[in-house]
Amino acid sequence: MASIDMLPPSARRALRLRAKSGRVQRSQRGTVVAGILHPCRSSCGSVASALALRNLTALFCMFLAWIPGCKKGRVPGGSASSADASASAASSVHAPITLPPLTGHAWMEPVKMPQGRSAVVAVPLGATEPRPILIGVHGASDRAEWACGGYRIATHDYPFVICPQGLPAGGDKFTPGGAARIARDIHAAIMSVRAEFGRYVAPGPLVYAGFSLGAIQGVPLVAATGAKYPRVVLIEGGDEEWTPAMAATFARTGGEMVLMLCASTSCSGFERASQILKGAGMAAKVVPAGTGRHNLDGEMISVLSEHFPWVVQFDDRWTGLVPDAGH
Questions:
Q1: Rg of the Cα trace of the chain?
Q2: Closest among 52, 62, 44 to 8, alpha carbons compared
Q3: Could you report the per-residue pLDDT of 79-119, keeping only the tens digit for each?
Q4: Cα torsion angle, 149, 155, 157, 159, sign
Q5: DSSP for 157-177?
Q6: I need a surface site. Which of 33, 83, 103, 310 has the fewest CB within 10 A?
C-alpha cells in the first residue's frame, strides 16, 4: 500500500500542512474533504462526496506523477486538466499571497465598461490577500447600486461584488436584459476589475447571486456555464426555471451547489427545484426567510448573511469569511 513516505518531500510537506491546519478530527460519520477528515453535515448532499472524491483522486495523481511511466488520469466528474488543477491547488493552498492592504478606493465604484453598458463593484477595502468574486444581479425596476450594497453587507465586505446594471426601465430604475446580455456585461466587468485591482482579485470560479428577475434570468446562464458559476444564490426567483433538463445541464457543465431563499414561510416552488437539483447530483438548500416582502431589504440580507457560508464551503478562497470553508 502506498504511504505518505513514498511521496517526494514537497508533496509530503503539502499533505502534512493540510492535515495540521485542518485540525483533523475522527468521526464515525467522517467524510474526507479537501484532503482531511471532516464530518459531513446533512446539507452537504452529494457534492461533499463528489468533491471529496475529486480531491482524493487529485492527491493520488500527485503520487502517481512521481512514478516513472505513469500517465495522467481523469478525475471522476472532471477533465484531465481539472485533475492537474486540483493537484496544483492541493499543493499550493498553504502558500498564501500577502499583499499590502487594499486602499485608495471607495467602498463602491463604477466599473469601466463598453459604451452603453454600466456596472459597479463593491471593493473589499483593507484586503491583504486575493479575494474571490461574487456576481450580484438586481431585479426588475431596481438598481445595481442598491443590490450591490446588500450583497456586500451579506458577505461582510469580503469578496469583490460585481453588479451589472440592466436596461433602463423608466426614471432611475433598470431591469435585467436577459441571460445573454447579463453574461456579456459580467465578462466585460470582470476584465475591467481584474485590470484595475490585479493580484487582489483571486483566480477561479465565481459565485452568482440573483434577486427576482436577476435570479430568473440567471438560471439558464449558470446552467450553461457551471464551471464558471458552480455556486449559485437565488432569491425570490428562479425556482420554475429548474427543469430536470436544466439541472442536468448545470451538473454536466460543472454546477455544484444552489442556495435558494424566499420571502414566505413556505417555499414550495424552491422545494420542488431543490429535489430536481439533488436528483441531478448537486447540493441544494432552501431557506424560508419569512420576511413577507418581495424585497432585497435589510431583513432578507440578514437571512442571506446567516446562510451564505453554506454555498462557499469547501472553497479555500473564502476561508477569510468562513474559517473552515476549505475543509
A1: 20
A2: 62
A3: 334 434 444 444 344 467 899 999 999 999 999 999 999 99
A4: negative
A5: T-SEEEEE--EE-STT-EE--
A6: 103
